[in-house]
Amino acid sequence: EGLALGKLLHSHIVDGGVLSNIVLxxxxxxxxxxxxxxxxxxxxxxxxPNRDVVSWTVIIAGYAQSGHGKEAFKLFQQMQxxxxxxxxxxxINLLNGLTSSEALTIGxxxxxxIVHSAIVIDVVLGNALIHMYCKCNSVVDARRVxx
Length: 147
Hints:
- About 70% of the residues lie in helices and about 0% in strands.
- By secondary structure, the chain is mainly α.
- The model has no long low-confidence stretch (mean pLDDT about 95).
């Protein structure tokens, strides 16, 4: 029901002649992601002429929350290659999508990116790291973050 209403809203926006902009597109991508329609979210994201850290974080979050951590990580890499610096929320959303033992290598790579960035590992980011390590069956690494 939520997706149908979201698509209806999106069609009214388009039919009403509202000009596309980064804030509107990002909100629509977020809506599609929260409704589990990553194909629609990605289609809209790929059409965006300009993307900022918020739009990148929203698409990464959508993939992470829908269980596609590897795709979220690919987008994270593309974001950086495009010169957009991730922020704390980007890292938190990405880490929340890395939830299997196969994702441990990626999780460690993301952790290294955080350490090498200027971002302070606060309680929220620390918890995301601990959660990721626990979900990836690496209690030793989780304990290291905790300590």
